[in-house]
Structure formats: C-alpha cells, structure tokens
From TrEMBL:
Belongs to the UPF0060 family. It holds the Pfam family UPF0060. It is found in: Cell membrane; Endomembrane system. The lineage of its organism: Bacteria, Bacillati, Bacillota, Bacilli, Bacillales. Keywords: Cell membrane, Membrane, Transmembrane, Transmembrane helix. The keyword Membrane applies. It is a multi-pass membrane protein. This is YnfA family protein. The keyword Repressor does not apply. Its main location: membrane. The chain crosses the membrane at residues 32-54, 61-77, 89-105.
Length: 107
C-alpha cells in the first residue's frame, strides 16, 4: 500500500505542478519556457500513473481523482496562499473516504 500512496502523491504533484506552470504561462503572462516545462511534467504524470500497483485503469484514475482533490487543496494553501475553508476540508475528507472504499481489497 505504501507504493500505491507514493505513486498517487508523485502523480498528483506532477499533474498539479505541470498544470500550474501552464497556468503561469497562459494566465499570468510568464515565459513560454514555463509552459513547455509544464507540458513535459504533465506528460510525465501520465507515465508515473502507470506504475500504480492496481491493475484496473478505471479504478486507478477514479481513486486518483480523490487524491488529486486533496493535493489541489494543499497546493492552493501552500503555493497560492488560499486557506481552505470548512467546505474544502469536508469535501476532501469525503473524497478520501471514497478512495478508501474503491481501493479496499476484494475477497
């Protein structure tokens, strides 16, 4: 399970970080080099996700969606300095619960 968590975290950071760099380029008027780096990092995200231990593509990406939500809230807080409110926190808790249900071992 530790490998699964690490792959989810690394994939999430790659997707959010790559998207953030593209955002900086297109929305904030920063250099195109940031956009290019963001595109490369987003491509790496697609590769990183294939290292997941679960065999079902759909299940992995569905569960990853919940992880992505939590990481996005953390990114907004740490990088954009946008403090999450109670709705953000409760939404994240619900998402993590959903991920746990999806990834429970089946007998």
């Amino acid at each position: 399970m530790l490998k699964a968590v690490l792959v989810f975290l690394l994939a999430g950071l790659a997707e959010i970080g790559g998207g953030y760099l593209i955002w900086q380029w297109l929305r904030e008027g920063r250099t195109w080099y940031l956009g290019l780096a963001g595109g490369i990092i987003l491509a790496l995200y697609g590769i990183i996700a294939t290292f997941q231990v679960f065999s079902s593509f759909g299940r992995v990406y569905a569960a990853y969606g919940g992880v992505f939500i939590v990481l996005s809230i953390g990114w907004a807080w740490l990088v954009d300095k946008k403090l999450p409110d109670a709705y953000d926190i409760w939404g994240a808790v619900l998402c993590v619960a959903g991920v746990a249900v999806m990834l429970l071992p089946r007998t």
